[in-house]
Write a structure and sequence with these properties.
Helix content: 40-55%
Shape: globular
Number of helices: 12
Largest sheet: 4 strands, parallel
Number of strands: 4
Structural class: mainly alpha
Strand order of the largest sheet: 3-2-1-4
Order of helices and strands: HEHEHEHHEHHHHHHH
Strand content: 5-15%
Length: 262
């Protein structure tokens, strides 16, 4: 494994940088705090911990939004995080809302991707409903690995006011989570977006994060040639090229919707 973890000093500096960023984003908006969707996964758990550091317990409102395909243990972990941090949270079932969308457009029934994305977008609408009502910002949970390969739903989990851990690769997310005391079972739990039954991030991506991260750091971010990256990471060149293709095909997710030139 190519190690992308920070030194102790770098990790402490990055932690301070992120908590300062959260506080500054809320202050700049003149908001009263932040809203965060809690999934029970490592990314949202880390953001929750950092947000409480930045804003205090009263500054963060949690939303636990189970759907019909959500695993009970994930939702239990989500509530556990809220309780451990001492933040207020609400549990809102999204199943009836998504069912209403499918009933309105029955042709979508059975389409895992379309309906799964509708679940993510429903959660985004609820995040903003609460945020608007309570004058808060919506915090995102996306990390750099997911952003670079487009592994998120456009106008779903990508619909947020800021991404506090958007500059961290997945390896670094795990490292920082351990450093701030996130329990090991949450750090090591297989990541899942919970969009359909049995879905996991690494299965859908077709590559483990410990392989994806260094390819992104070396080839996509660092400009190291594909052949050299493959040799360093100990994968075939086709794997590096596939990651590059994911990056290029998802460019539209990282940009504002285009308009014709003036």
């Amino acid at each position: 494994m190519v190690d992308l973890r920070f030194s102790d000093a770098e990790l402490a500096a990055r932690r301070d940088h992120i908590t300062t960023f959260i506080a500054e984003q809320v202050a700049a908006a003149g908001a009263d705090g932040a809203v965060l969707g809690l999934s029970g996964g490592i990314d949202s758990t880390l953001v929750a911990h950092l947000a409480v550091e930045a804003l205090g317990e009263d500054g963060l409102r949690g939303l636990v939004m189970p759907g019909t395909v959500s695993r009970d243990d994930n939702m239990s972990d989500a509530e556990r995080v809220a309780l451990d941090l001492g933040i207020e949270y609400d549990v809102i079932e999204i199943g009836p809302i998504v069912d209403a969308f499918v009933d309105a457009y029955p042709e979508s029934e059975g389409d895992e991707v379309a309906v799964g994305n509708a679940r993510a977008r429903t959660r985004a609408v609820l995040n903003y409903l609460v945020a608007n009502h309570e004058d808060r910002l919506v915090l995102g949970t996306g990390n750099r690995s997911e952003a670079l390969v487009g592994y998120y739903t456009k106008y779903g989990d990508g619909a947020v006011d800021c991404h506090p851990i958007g500059n961290l690769y997945k390896q670094q997310v795990r490292q920082l989570a351990r450093a701030i005391g996130v329990p090991d079972d949450l750090v090591e739990k297989p990541p899942t977006a919970g969009l359909w039954s049995g879905q996991t991030d690494e299965d859908e991506l077709g590559i483990p994060y410990d392989t994806l991260d260094p390819i992104l750091a070396l080839h996509v971010d660092g400009g190291v040639p594909a052949v050299s990256t493959a040799r360093i990471v100990d994968v075939d060149v086709e794997t590096v090229e596939r990651v590059e293709e994911l990056y290029e095909r998802s460019a539209h997710k990282r940009a504002m919707p285009p308009s014709p030139e003036r």
